Amino acid sequence: MDYSPIAPLYQLQYQHYTDxxxxxxxxALNYGxxxxxxxxxxxxxxxxxxxxxxxxxxxxPAQQMRKRGAKHTQGLGVKWLAGDMRQLKLKRxxxxxxxxxxxxxxxxxxDEQDAMLQGVRAHLEAGGRFAFDVYNPAHIGxxxxxxxxxxxxxxxxxxxxxxxxxxxxxxxxxxxxxxSPSGTLKRxxxxxxxxxxxxxxxxxxxxxxxFDYRLFGGFHKEPLTPESPxxxxxxxxx
Length: 238
Prior knowledge:
seven-stranded mixed β-sheet; Rossmann fold; about 240 residues; 6 helices; 2 domains
């Protein structure tokens, strides 16, 4: 999915999401910079890290997301890069590489996943860390049910999901309704496709590329349980 058409909505939806910020900023302070963020979106996490005085390289493929991210992080130590996490060729290594907020769920095939992790391994300094979080599929909700996602500056957002278990895919269909001053209703439709991961799939994937790791069920390093909302991993080269 190209996030450019929904960049303004995305920024409004998640600008107040802070659950992961302490986790990633603490890692950045522990390992130093520059930090490479994969799928940096509109700069929510990059901004939090840069405000701690740590340089960030923010990699984002969608032009409008980068444009908003650059404005959102203006005056901070964030370097915005156009690029794809499946094709990392930055000619340097980093002490910390992060992929927050389900970024890796946009890798839809095994080849794409392997290309990304191979690139991370090549770009990670010895003793550095690769950290990411993904959605826990134990919490896949009701399918085909229209839900009101929220109201954002006069725009109403509705969504419904499709679950495709054999592909381990979630398709989220967004209906974005905007009322003009003249009373005309305009509806936009967007579909977000995400490929989810199971616990042992992630562990086998990291082992296949010679990473050691720690797995948590939350951003405060809680043990993983069926109720955990996310899978959080810290990995490092053996």
